[in-house]
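Q: Hi! First time asking for a complex rather than a single chain. Here are the components, and I think there are two in total. Is that enough to go on?
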Amino acid sequence: DIQMTQSPSALSASVGDRVTITCRASQSITNWLAWYQQKPGKAPNLLIYQASSLESGVPSRFSGGGSGTEFTLTISSLQPDDFATYYCQQYNSYPGTFGQGTKVEIK
Amino acid sequence: QVQLVESGGGVVQPGRSLRLSCAASGFTLRGYAMQWVRQAPGKGLEWVAVILYDGSDEYYADSVKGRFTISRDDSKNTVFLQMNSLRTDDTAVYYCARPAGFGDHLPYYFDSWGQGSLVTVSS
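A: Yes, that's all I need. Here is the structure of the assembled complex.
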């Protein structure tokens, strides 16, 4: 199985900050990577697919990049609604493994 | 409007069984490789199982292989997860998820999720 490792596990940031989360795959997944946002008590919500494609309705301050084994999710200017936990998921092959999550907290 | 509604969760003793259902509406289940993802309290997301769009195969996480069985009834637009020999570490919210792709055997990301069904395994 492909292992996904996110860093950091948690971060504190202020409104307006630029935030970057990294996700590394244990082997190449080309660009078959998605990012989700999850808030407490809610199901995950798709933000980015195919590493850099923005899901319809997702604000443009979210962007994704990378290929192969290293990927990033960037929030260009953190907003109050963005405080949540973020997960990457590879869908190069089954099982579609997730990273362990990055919790973005208010500084 | 696409909707997935899970049901069947509850409190169960270790070693017992439980069957989760995921009822789909707003789209036809036929053609989608439906999947289950779980989340233990305070933990991250864990992929559990997939049944391919034509029912030709299933894949499972190592942690549930041999104990859980995923199935589908396209006529009822419903997916199931039969969970046997439950353990305390199976305690989690179980989500049903729809992949974004349709009609092939490729993995996809998830564009729709249910609200989740809580399974608590405790004596």
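A: The first strand of chain A starts at residue 4 and ends at 7. Let me know if you'd like any chain examined more closely.
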